[in-house]
Amino acid sequence: MNSRRGFSMVELVVALAILGVFAGVASVRLSASAERARVDAAARRIVNAFDDARSRARSQSVACQVLFIASPPTVEIKGPLTGQAGLDAVRLDQAPYRVRIKTATFGGRSDVEFDRYGRPNSGGYVLVSSLSGRFERLITIEAESGRATIE
Question: Which residues are 74's β-sheet partners?
């Protein structure tokens, strides 16, 4: 009697082809998931910048400004406004974010200023997107309270 041990070459090639298809699908999903996570992280960082500036303005009784620069995409917190001292700057086109600012408007301006009570000079929004443009997040700030939310 002739008994075979192991797999034939055809069986191995078919198994590897199936694994290749699964790996291809998984890598596409993984890259899309990572891209979405970068946009979400950038949106949370912008909300933190608003909260930080609002908190500094209230605790130190000075005006603080959050400025959005489109190229290179940067978020800056400045204050007090008399000295324009840079308190914090985050480049959104670099790791870990790698996103772009599509638009930032606050009453026709690209910055929002919190007075010494933590109230913004206007409401508005920031729209950030992935470099491919597949994912976007809208961050809004309420004019009355200064509360920032991600939509």
Answer: 69, 91
| Contact predicate 100/69, CB 8 Å | no
- The yes-or-no verdict on residue 82 having pLDDT over 50 is no
- Identify the CATH class of 9-150: alpha beta
- Model's pTM, two decimal places? 0.80
Question: What would the pLDDT profile of 88-130 be if each residue is shown by its tens digit?
Answer: 888 999 999 999 999 999 999 999 999 999 999 999 999 999 9
Q: Is the pLDDT of residue 81 over 60?
A: no
- Cis peptide bond prior to 120, omega within 30° of 0: no
